[in-house]
Amino acid sequence: MKPRPRYHEPIVAVSAEPFLVTCLSAVYMEKVCAAEQAFVTLATNDSYARGAMVLGKSLRNHKTSKKLVVLVGPHVSDQSRAVLHKIFDEVRLVDVLDSGDTAHLAMMKRPDLGVTFTKLHCWTLTHYSKCVFMDADTLVVSNIDELFDREELSAAPDPGWPDCFNSGVFVFRPSNETYGKLLQYCTEHGSFDGAKAIFLQPPLGQCARYATFMAPRHSEPILMSLAVSLSVSIEEPIRLLRCEGGDQGVLNGFFSDWATADINKHLPFIYNMSSIAIYTYLPAFKQYGANAKVVHFLGQMKPWSYTYNLTQRTLRGDVQASSQPGFLLQWWALYSAEVLPMLVREYGDQPFISGCEEDAAASEEHVQPLMSSAERKQRWEQGQADYMGIDSFDNIQKKLDVFLK
Question: Rounded to 10 degrees, what is the CA torsion of 376, 404, 115, 85?
Answer without folding.
Answer: 30
